[in-house]
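Reopening this one. Same input as before:
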Amino acid sequence: MKTKVFIDGSEGTTGLRIYERFQNRDDIELLHICPELRKDPAERKKMIEASDLTFLCLPDEAARESVSLVENKDVVIIDASTAHRTAKGWAYGFPELSKEHKTAIQKGKRIAVPGCYATGFISLVYPLIAGGILPKDYPVSSFAISGYSGAGKKTIAAYEADERPKELSAGREYALTQQHKHLNEMQKITGLVRTPLFSPIIDDYYSGMIVSVPLYTDLLAKEETPESLLHYYAAYFKNQPFLKVSDAEDPVAASGFLAANGLSGWDGLKIYVTGNKERVVVSAQFDNLGKGASGAAIECMNLVLGCEETKGLVL
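Same output, byte for byte:
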């Protein structure tokens, strides 16, 4: 029997990318809402209640509204918004972090997909804290660069317009008030005492991102080098199809450059460790629309359904 799936917010970037990933799947029956009723609460409730699993690809308030409409306790909700990522009773959709995270997703009825920047940050920081390498009170900072596709329809249209301000041709730092919406989950999921200092940049290309965390090795709990940290990450994420770790011979790292669009179109994430004995930078490279959004949502769905984790994804 096919799983009935509804995408609430199928017109947005994440919703469209989820829809695309179902085109060659014979185990999914997509439920479609009439376009003119896609914002009507009664019709949305009807579609959600008729589904086995619903994806929420909506602004936060609309996502909360959709959840409030659900009365059928058997419906699984996978929310791609920021609304429920640290909410009680919601599984955090990053199964590679621990066995507990994976089990919570497999058994969960309410699953929150991580934010794109948060995915990169947490993939780097969570294992270091779990392994006793990074103290929880370390004053963590992070910088990141992303393509414009994660910024919403209005921003995408501005970047792709025939005539546009010259400022859009260069990288633009934003969230200058240190109030980025992903900071809450970045701190709470990792268990950091301090809110990280975070400096994201949006640049003039469509998709792909790099999130980096610089570290002073003498402030870590024990002596580490780029090589030892690479070995640690490789062991931590061993046999994880979505998480890859570079090695000392990696040609990309050896080139001296990491391109933020280097893994665009791929649904996994790759970790690099560069630097020297005194100062190290750990970096996560991935597609903000893949592991950073729709790819992660499909991965969570696959775990819920008990099928191959990678089914329908590009790895």
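So the earlier flakiness isn't reproducible anymore. For the record, The first strand starts at residue 3 and ends at 8.
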